[in-house]
Amino acid sequence: MTYKVINKEQLIEANNIAKHLNWPRHFKSDDFSDIDRFEKKQEWPILFSIKIREGRWRVLFEHENGELYQLDIIDRIYDNLKEIKEEAKH
User: How far is CA 8 from the centre of its chain?
Assistant: First the structure.
């Protein structure tokens, strides 16, 4: 199975762009304040993604607290998300 992950830098940039473009799925400042405590190398697995219109993807990812979050991200960031290949367990 292959899945994508978003790192801290990509998450911050994607959120800033989504806020600037007034897209519906982004974090408000107070909802996003705990991002600073994570390491630069932190990654969050993308559980689901869908292309909702030209230039924009909507992704669903799980945060450390177990909550699921949605974020709208531009193609450039989505196309550069790292892919992880997980070996099937028997």
Answer: 9
